[in-house]
Amino acid sequence: MAWNEPGGNNNDPWKNKGGRDQGPPDLDDVFKNLFGKFSKSTGGSGGSGKGVSSAGIGLVVGLIVVIWAVSGFYTIREAERGVVLRFGEYYTQVEPGLRWAPRFIDRVIPVDIQSIRDQSSSGSMLTEDENLVRVQMEMQFRVIDPYRWIYAVVEPEVSLSQALDSAIRYVVGHSKMDDVLTDGREETRQRVWQELQDIIEPYDMGVQIIDMNFKDARPPEEVKDAFDDAIAAQEDEQRFIREAEAYARELEPRARGRVNRMNEEAQAYKERVILQAEGEVARFEELLPQYEAAPQVTRQRIYLETMESVFSNTTKVMIDSEGGGNMMYLPLDKILERQGTQQTQDESRNALETLRNAATPDTPVTTTNRQSTRGDRFGRGGN
């Protein structure tokens, strides 16, 4: 049965304590009993709970002071700096470590100054050539001045987000769609970074922009396929350019090698011609005294030496028109070599066919007649 059911059964746990009806304990009675115990422990006259000695009050105050002093210790981590406010006003900054601040007087706000934070912004924007693109960029920053970070603006992260959004929209609005989507992405990223720096600089927010990432930029879905084809064509162009450059790098050493070889050959030819000319000059200088002493003999000698040099590499047949039409074969060693070569079977057949073609139809040519004809010919040549 519940203690508060009707019917006269009063089972309230705060009543009937000790057999009497009574309400909840009074706080005044509690404090009086507490001070009375302190008075008894110090020998005071507070046994009745109506008086409190100064020693008891001092003990309570000391206990409160100890609790207050202990509660003032705090720790600043290595990556943080503490901003100390005294009665709500900026007082100082503290370094990492175990620190103490008077409770209810100083307030310490730790600020992380080493971690890299990020802030992103995205949205559909209109370019300079009146095309719609969706751009998403991410900024990475770090706090370098804790005091300025807390008190320069009301909400620093919201302010940074708005500044980033303004910078992106300004740069995209002054750029063409092809530049934002294709080969101008890096330039767009740099311009957004610079524009963001210019926006937040007057506010002196105590932050440093570490990097700016161009995460995404795409056209509307209706023309996405066409732009994908255009991007693929540009990628193919870059690939072809790289292949051509690789081919040029491969071909250039070979061409340089050929050029060097040709230069060396030309230099060698030059030196050979110079040496030959110098040799000719020296030879003519040696012949000059002999020519001056006997011009006719020297001229005839030079002529014979020249003819010897010319006819040493020829197989021509010379006919002496003034001496009776005799034939003279020069040089003789070539004739002997030819006679030895014509003894082979193949050359014999070729010679036989030649003689048959040269003979008249009424005069048959045999091998015996051919040999006698050759003998008469060489006999006349010998005469």
TrEMBL record:
<feature type="compositionally biased region" description="Polar residues">
    <location>
        <begin position="363"/>
        <end position="372"/>
    </location>
</feature>
<dbReference type="Pfam" id="PF12221">
    <property type="entry name" value="HflK_N"/>
</dbReference>
<feature type="region of interest" description="Disordered">
    <location>
        <begin position="1"/>
        <end position="23"/>
    </location>
</feature>
<dbReference type="InterPro" id="IPR020980">
    <property type="entry name" value="Membrane_HflK_N"/>
</dbReference>
<dbReference type="GO" id="GO:0008233">
    <property type="term" value="F:peptidase activity"/>
</dbReference>
<feature type="compositionally biased region" description="Basic and acidic residues">
    <location>
        <begin position="373"/>
        <end position="383"/>
    </location>
</feature>
<dbReference type="Pfam" id="PF01145">
    <property type="entry name" value="Band_7"/>
</dbReference>
<dbReference type="InterPro" id="IPR050710">
    <property type="entry name" value="Band7/mec-2_domain"/>
</dbReference>
<feature type="region of interest" description="Disordered">
    <location>
        <begin position="340"/>
        <end position="383"/>
    </location>
</feature>
<keyword id="KW-1133">Transmembrane helix</keyword>
<dbReference type="InterPro" id="IPR010201">
    <property type="entry name" value="HflK"/>
</dbReference>
<keyword id="KW-0645">Protease</keyword>
<keyword id="KW-0812">Transmembrane</keyword>
<keyword id="KW-0472">Membrane</keyword>
<protein>
    <recommendedName>
        <fullName>Protein HflK</fullName>
    </recommendedName>
</protein>
<comment type="function">
    <text>HflC and HflK could encode or regulate a protease.</text>
</comment>
<dbReference type="InterPro" id="IPR001972">
    <property type="entry name" value="Stomatin_HflK_fam"/>
</dbReference>
<dbReference type="GO" id="GO:0006508">
    <property type="term" value="P:proteolysis"/>
</dbReference>
<feature type="transmembrane region" description="Helical">
    <location>
        <begin position="55"/>
        <end position="76"/>
    </location>
</feature>
<comment type="subunit">
    <text>HflC and HflK may interact to form a multimeric complex.</text>
</comment>
<keyword id="KW-0378">Hydrolase</keyword>
<comment type="similarity">
    <text>Belongs to the band 7/mec-2 family. HflK subfamily.</text>
</comment>
<dbReference type="InterPro" id="IPR036013">
    <property type="entry name" value="Band_7/SPFH_dom_sf"/>
</dbReference>
<feature type="domain" description="Band 7">
    <location>
        <begin position="71"/>
        <end position="231"/>
    </location>
</feature>
<dbReference type="InterPro" id="IPR001107">
    <property type="entry name" value="Band_7"/>
</dbReference>
